[in-house]
Amino acid sequence: MKRVIVLMSVMFLTLSYGQEIKQVPQITVSGEGKVKVIPDEATISATVETKGNNAKEVKQKNDQQIDAVLKLIKKMNLAPADYRTQRVSLNPQYDYEKKKTSYNATQTIEIIVRDLNKYDELMEGLVNQGINRIDNVVFQSSKLAQHESEARKLAMKQAKHKAEDYVSVLGQKIGKAMTISDNSQTYYPQPVYATMRKMEMSDSAAPRETLAAGEITITANVTVNFILD
To answer: How far apart are CA 80 and CA 68, in angstroms?
Structure first.
């Protein structure tokens, strides 16, 4: 009997406590912060693809072209840590109509360009040395952490300002924040850049620009729950 009384007392206290919490005046708002920056570096995924009827010859030709590409990269004084082989494959492809097997070899290199002034020269050199596929180009900022921090602060300021706007009409003020939820998603948009063409110089030998880096937007989103005074 005593256990039942104690249990009922605990349940009553818990319910009472829950009711008290629910009665605290609160407001929940969201905030968004955006920072637009000009990218200062790019990551290029470039592939050499070769095909033929002899697996050994196909692989050798692919290796030769990759060797030329790596020599170009070293010649441009890119740091060893800024390029790496990302993917290597050699696959048989059977033609059921001709009843013959051919082979397809690919090697993909990921290159980080930390000086975008080298972008056009590098892209031209890659094509000349045997790269026949540019899989992806992603532009980014070397100060990403700094810009993300700034975006988070702007999101919090907007949330606070929004809450103040709402409660000012009621003659109240916002107090301490009870909860803060970070709803941000990491996203690296790819700015518009010129489609890669054959990197040939015109008759006047004038340099050709193929890059429009644009801007990237770093966004932070928060949800904040304030107590009302």
So the answer is: 16
CATH homologous superfamily of 41-140 equals Protein of unknown function (DUF541), domain 2 (3.30.70.2970)
d(CA 119, CA 125): 10
- pLDDT tens profile 55-84: 999 999 999 999 999 999 999 999 999 999
Architecture of domain 24-39+142-229: 2-Layer Sandwich (3.30)
What the block records as the tokens of 67 is 């060797």
The Cα 124–Cα 192 span in angstroms is 18
27-42 exposure pattern, b = at least 16 Cβ within 10 A, e = fewer? bebebbbebebebebb
Whether pTM exceeds 0.70? no
- Gyration radius from the chain CA atoms: 30
